[in-house]
Amino acid sequence: MQNSHQSFASSRLPVLPMPPKMFGKFKKSSSPERTSSPSASLMDRRNQQVATLPHRATPQSSTHYILPLEGVQSPQGIPASLHIHLPPSFPDVPPQLLVQPPIPHAWCNQEGYLGMPRELRNWSPDNNLGRIVRDIEREFKIRSVYQIPVQPASIPPPQPIPQPQPAPTPQQSAWPEVDSLSVDMLETLLSSPEALHAFYESLDAPKQIAQIHRELLKQSEELAQQNLSQAPVIEDLQSRLQNVTGSIQVEAQKHAQLLAAYREEAERFSPQRILPLIENAIQESEKASDEISESFYKGQISVDEFLKQYKEERKRFHQRSSVKEIITSNPGIL
Fold first, then answer.
1. What are φ and ψ of residue 81, in 5° steps?
2. Which of these, 122, 113, 119, lies nearest to 132 by C-alpha position?
3. Could you count the other beta carbons within 10 Å of the beta carbon of residue 317?
4. Is the pLDDT at 78 greater than 50, yes or no?
5. pLDDT tens per residue, range 85-130
6. What does the alpha-carbon distance between residue 196 and residue 143 come to, in Å, rounded to a whole number?
7. Which whole-number Å values give the CA distances from 66 to 55, 57, 125, 181, 279, in the listed order?
């Protein structure tokens, strides 16, 4: 299986030339080795690049991330993942991208190290790592090549014995009347429009077409006569509709007048209009009670007359006060 995989990848998917530091085992960058931690500027740029990675990329460490390639499998059916390794001097040096398990593809070698797309090959610190990773993921989803398993040899099934095919029947002509004409007759029809017209009218198909045309014309005339016979009914309905429309307009005017009168009366009996009147009536009852008491003190009325008049006026006072209290506590009662 491994030999067939290597021959398949070498014959069908030629590996593109890659930079030396992108293949083989993980190698240290050719830049001078740094023993101290990266500078603040380098760390900021590094964090900005890491922030562009897809959310599905899970960190294994601060320098190693794994992104599952959804829907991409190795020839053995194992789900593939993209391993993202960030060197200490990243993004000044390119990242190392590895597909595991290896997938036969033109962008990677047999070990799975990637040298494409172009932004990865021609790396610049200004390149966007997240966009490069998404381009790789999209490329493998669309153009990933799987090893085709070799089917074991088997005895081919017996071929069926060919059966004799029936001879094709000649296609019937649409104008059999023309097929029976002689050459002289055809030349006559072609040279004489009158003869061609007479021959055309003698055929069955034009006769059938003319008959159908006459029947359709007759049906159209009958339908037109039926529509015309309904004209008086339609006119009567239109007249009734106009009368009803006029009645509706008159009733609408009456309704508008009644509505205006109702609103005027409702305004008269609104709490804003009634409460001041009730308050005036209460004050009048209070004043009348005082006048009755003063007349009694002056000896102008007897005790019986005082009691009768005073009771009636105080009763009227309390009735009006009760009405005011009810309206004030329940404005919607009116």
1. -135, 155
2. 119
3. 19
4. yes
5. 999 999 899 999 989 888 888 888 888 888 877 888 889 898 899 8
6. 66
7. 11, 5, 21, 85, 87
